Amino acid sequence: MDAKKETITEKPAFELINSFNKIIVGRGKKVVEFEPSSENKNEIMKASLGRTGNLRAPAVQIGAALYIGFNDNIYNELLSD
Prior knowledge:
The protein has helices at residues 10-18, 41-48, 72-80; strands at residues 22-27, 30-34, 59-62, 65-68. By secondary structure, the protein is α+β, with helices and mostly antiparallel strands. It has a four-stranded mixed sheet with strand order 2-1-4-3, with helices on one face.
């Protein structure tokens, strides 16, 4: 999906996120890992949405995990596997 043409706002983003067992959010040098639930919804959404209110890019599904945002270490590790 091209994020410039099709945006994913908060409600559909949480529905997508909630369908995964593990969420890894990269933001610059910071990496945060979540197990989605209704208790941590606000924390997950704060980390996963950009300032425009859309799901941060890139968002990549690998197995039961969803990787959101960019972090050099995450993607270098994924490429080396």
